[in-house]
Design brief:
mainly alpha
Length: 282
């Protein structure tokens, strides 16, 4: 459900959403099986990425054989592996830096980066073997009120489902879903009005940070548990996909362009969370 909803938020239609949901679900089951058999975390991340994205490619191929047209292939492909993003270590590292706990922050960043590299390795193998298409298509043609409604539902579902995958307590799961519904809706609406990805991501993350800190103080719901899932679903998935594919194919100029857009958007998310702390007295 989380992978399918994230695919929709990145512009996918129903065939890509179903394929992403199949890939993400089977990939998560495979990751749990590998963990129970004590496979190393980096190997588990790479193998799970291969399984999830490989299932997506297979499901998409079967859909095309059945006569369904997949116009938003990249959105579903990257959505199938989003459950592997190490959200807790990376966001905890950011909060550690803000509290001047440099050693802990560097350790968490290093761990998160190694997991991301393992996931990128798995994706690169599937991209090369499956000759994955990188062509980006126009967005879905839906009435704007319907688009807003579906975005809200997808944001809530994706954040709640990812929070459950991250072993978040039930009360924090619901809070994460509501936060994502409002904040991600704000981010996408700002994009619709012409704002660039990075500042829109900043304002959305700033809102998440403010609300999470306020709820933590008043209701004692851990702010990290409420923050991770809404932030993860705001990752610019299509640009991440393009960055990996283009680097893998040696198209360095285009790869760097995709990397810059992706990096600024993720940086906006990080700075939004950081800025929110300046408005809360501890």
């Amino acid at each position: 459900m989380a992978s399918g909803a994230f695919a929709f938020l990145n512009g996918a239609a129903a065939p890509e959403m179903i394929s992403a949901a199949l890939g993400g679900g089977i990939g998560q089951l495979f990751r749990a099986w590998l963990s129970r058999h004590h496979i190393g975390q980096y190997g588990t991340a790479a193998l799970s990425a291969i399984a999830a994205s490989g299932i997506y490619v297979l499901a998409a191929a079967l859909a095309q054989r059945a006569g369904l047209e997949l116009l938003h292939y990249p959105s579903g492909f990257i959505a199938s592996v989003l459950f592997l993003i190490p959200g807790f270590p990376l966001i905890a590292a950011l909060l550690d830096l803000l509290q001047h706990q440099t050693v802990a922050a560097v350790s968490r960043f290093a761990y998160g980066l190694m997991i991301l590299l393992a996931v990128a390795l798995g994706l690169s193998i599937v991209i090369e073997v499956g000759n994955v298409d990188i062509a980006r298509q126009p967005p879905l043609d839906l009435a704007y009120p319907l688009t807003l409604l579906l975005r809200a539902v997808a944001s809530f579902v994706a954040a709640c489902a990812f929070a459950m995958v991250f072993n978040t307590p039930l009360r924090a799961v619901l809070m994460a879903g509501l936060l994502a519904l409002v904040a991600n809706g704000l981010r996408l609406a700002l994009n619709d009005m012409g704002m660039m990805l990075a500042p829109a991501a900043f304002f959305a993350a700033f809102l998440i940070g403010l609300v999470a800190l306020g709820v933590d103080e008043r209701f004692n719901v851990p702010r990290l548990a409420m923050t991770v899932a809404p932030i993860v679903i705001m990752i610019p998935g299509v640009y991440v996909f393009e960055m990996i594919v283009l680097f893998n194919r040696g198209q360095m100029q285009q790869a760097l362009q995709a990397s810059a857009v992706c990096g600024f958007a993720i940086g906006g998310l990080a700075m939004g969370l950081a800025t929110a702390r300046f408005f809360i007295r501890r």
